[in-house]
Design brief:
six-stranded antiparallel beta sheet, twelve-stranded antiparallel beta sheet, globular
């Protein structure tokens, strides 16, 4: 079934000092005032929509991938989608499914993806293609549902379409779902393979609900252990349970730095998030 892609031609500048940008997507533009402290049972904005405050804080609209059993407040969450080509089927790595080459300017492509997909599974995802001579990546605006078939049709965000001819028999493709489509609390195993998506400020996290994830600006994050109480302790890294740790103590994913001038023997937990 054909998917309608909307073209937002505006941004919302709110009296609370925030600006909302909405990308091309299958979700109709919505001018409702965003609430960064609440989750939504229905999708109100396109995945990846950007909400920026005048004070420098930046949020992205995301979909929760699980119901958290541990409070998410003041803890980092991660992208729950496993990399395409791994044992999981969150994304796709393979080839195009077509009987002829895909022309320059084409805005739809058919992936030889054999996994059943709900409509817009690939919304706000990225498509990496490997045509002859160079590498190209395109944002995916949306995708059609696919059940009991061996192909999935995706819609490119760029209305100018493909920049090069894609030869069906020799062009490899990798389709990544949005990094905001399956936001999860840090897993209890293999957490060392995860990357932080941001901070959820809502007090609940219910599977298949939506909400805002903070990615930049001043933010209080539960510390694994307070740091900054010794000299040169400034950089913050994500710990395995979503807390933050000193870089030297847990060299995983750098997420920001301490904002406060600390003193010997007394650290802090407010950081400036630097995830974008």
């Amino acid at each position: 079934m054909t998917v309608t892609i909307y073209n937002p031609r505006h941004k919302l500048i709110d009296d609370l000092g925030m600006v909302l940008w909405m990308p091309r997507s299958p979700i109709a533009p919505n001018l409702a005032k965003p609430d960064i402290y609440a989750q939504n049972a229905q999708q109100l904005y396109p995945l990846g929509s950007k909400l920026e405050f005048a004070d420098g804080r930046v949020f992205r609209y995301a979909r929760w991938g699980e119901t958290a059993t541990t409070p998410t407040i003041a803890r980092l969450v991660c992208n729950g989608n496993l990399v395409p080509g791994s044992a999981a089927t969150n994304g796709y790595e393979g080839s195009l499914d077509a009987t002829s080459d895909v022309a320059i300017g084409s805005t739809t492509l058919v992936l030889n993806d054999t996994t059943d997909r709900v409509e817009n599974w690939y919304e706000d995802g990225m498509l990496a293609t490997f045509p002859s001579g160079h590498y190209v990546e395109y944002r995916i605006a949306g995708s059609e549902a696919a059940t009991s078939v061996d192909d999935v049709t995706i819609y490119l965000d760029d209305p100018n379409g493909l920049q090069t001819l894609h030869v069906v028999n020799s062009t490899g493709v990798t389709a990544y779902p949005s990094i905001f489509s399956n936001v999860q609390y840090m897993p209890t195993t293999n957490s060392e393979y995860d990357s932080a998506v941001g901070m959820i400020l809502a007090d609940t996290m219910t599977s298949a609900y939506y909400g805002w994830v903070q990615r930049k600006g001043r933010c209080i994050v539960t510390p694994t252990a307070y740091f900054g109480d010794s000299a040169n302790e400034r950089m913050a890294q994500m710990h395995s349970d979503g807390t933050i740790a000193l870089k030297a103590a847990d060299a995983t994913h750098t997420v920001g730095y301490l904002t406060q001038k600390t003193v010997s023997g007394y650290g802090d937990l407010e950081i400036w998030l630097t995830l974008e």
